[in-house]
UniProtKB/TrEMBL annotation, chain A:
One term of GO molecular function: ATP hydrolysis activity
Protein name: ABC transporter ATP-binding protein
Top-level taxonomic group: Bacteria
Keywords: ATP-binding, Nucleotide-binding, Transport
Organism: Teichococcus rhizosphaerae
Pfam families per UniProt: ABC_tran
Residue ranges of domain ABC transporter in the record: 7-244
TrEMBL record, chain B:
Keywords, sorted A to Z: Cell inner membrane, Cell membrane, Membrane, Transmembrane, Transmembrane helix, Transport
Transmembrane regions: 7-30, 50-74, 150-175, 200-220, 232-259
UniProt key word Ribonucleoprotein: no
Molecular functions (GO terms): phospholipid transporter activity
Listed name of the protein: ABC transporter permease
Biological function: Could be part of an ABC transporter complex.
Presence of the UniProt keyword Transmembrane helix in the record: yes
Subcellular location(s) per record: Cell inner membrane; Membrane
GO cellular component, one term: ATP-binding cassette (ABC) transporter complex
Domain of life of the source: Bacteria
Membrane topology per record: Multi-pass membrane protein
Amino acid sequence: MSSTPKIRLRGLSKRFGAKTVLDGVDLDVAAGHGLVILGGSGSGKSVTIKCILGLIQPDAGSIEIDGRDILAMPRREREALNDRIGMLFQNGALFDSLPVWENVCFKLLAQKRITRARARDKAAEVLAQVGLAASVGDLSPSELSGGMQKRVGLARAIAAEPEIIFFDEPTTGLDPIMGAVIDGLIVDCVKRLGATAVSITHDMASARRIGDSAAMIHKGRIVWTGPASTLGHSGNAMVDQFANGSREGPITMELRR
Amino acid sequence: MNLILNFLATIGRGVLGACRIIGAVVLFALEGVSHILRPPFYPRLVGRAFVEIAYFSLPVVALTAVFTGMVLALQSHSGFSRFGAESAIANVVVLSITRELGPVLAGLMVAGRIGAAFAAEIGTMRVTDQIDALTTLSTNPMKYLVAPRLLAGTVAMPLLVVIADILGVMGGWLVGTAQLGFTSASYLTSTLNFLQPMDVISGLVKAAVFGFVITLMGCYSGYTSRGGAQGVGAATTTAVVSSSILILALDYVLTAMFFGL
Ligand SMILES: Nc1ncnc2c1ncn2[C@@H]1O[C@H](COP(=O)(O)OP(=O)(O)OP(=O)(O)O)[C@@H](O)[C@H]1O
Ligand SMILES: [Mg+2]
């Protein structure tokens, strides 16, 4: 493990209108490491990832990848950096105008690393890794079930063998067995590619499987980081409440009664 | 006093808002055009957009043109026969069609079809994160989604209008020969006699501008749409309304440029 972290966030802040979503997020992810981000719904997990991907411009703070500040980078370099990053969106975000196989090989085709003639075979190969038959490749995304869409999204995220992969709730909406399979796949991929993986999940079993470490975000800040294996008995009241899903504890949901 | 200040503030805010939107649209257009000129190019996407604009709009544009030509012939007959100027009917039909009605009516029809379709498609891609996904997949969304459509729209509209011109004249000819007692030959010679190349060319230039504006407004409203299905619906309406108004306004400007003074 090198001393500069693969990803380093400092004081990341973002507001939407009057609503402060991120309020000084500090986070380090070491190269080749798996980090899971936990946090309540709407706590800004997806926004954090989108900031790192350059899809949302943060109001303040710095984002470094391999020690270089990406917010100060010229656009061309920034785009080159995106070539090495993969992302699984929370809702799949598959292109519904394209068949599944073209979705899966989209990045390889865009980077001209593969010809269209070869892309079908390549897609079948990657689809097999996520437990989908090659025949799925000829369907359109709208013909797939939610769980299948998730797996196609995953296939698309890993097809170009990125160095950094973001998974936004990779197992939400899958049955428990498929969830475990996908977790296995993520771990596998990360090992095989030597990639750095940042995953968002609400599923504690999954978090322990795919994470080396975990970070908890609450009220726009990282309130805890630690080994993923200790989730549930970390000693931090907030994290343990979250991990065990109990109603009593320091986190109070803002519900009206 | 307060009332007046509030009133002025409201107007000021409206004007500033309008300026901001105009500026944003212009920047969007410039970026779109710059991507048309720089590789990578997406010929398949240009082709797909072209087929959608030109080929699938053909029936509706053709019907509009034929009926407009027919109505023009009838109307000018009922007007001109009062002072015995029936011979000018063919000229009136061909000039109105090539200079004005061909491009404007085809533009309005295409604005309804294509402006709405592009805004809905790109808007849906926006609210379902597909545009963000493009960025993470090493593809510039402006280049992939907007540039091919702008190019296709600018090229397709003049072609549609050539067809509309021909069919419009045919509509006039139908009424002229079947109802108004022209012989086929005399109608066609008087159609061609006074027609200047500029009449047709100005119409085609208008068509190209309208094609650009329609696709631009469709792409822009879709690209900037927010907030789920409702946002996409609003984007569709904006695209159709704004491109229709722009077509009519630009028609005046272009006419003044070509034929004014
Ligand atoms: N583009 C946007 N415009 C305005 N507000 C936004 C935007 N994106 C996110 N938000 C707001 O930011 C907050 C955090 O959103 P985010 O999607 O990061 O939540 P999350 O932690 O991923 O939650 P979940 O677990 O439900 O996915 C939400 O309250 C949301 O309303
Ligand atoms: Mg989220």
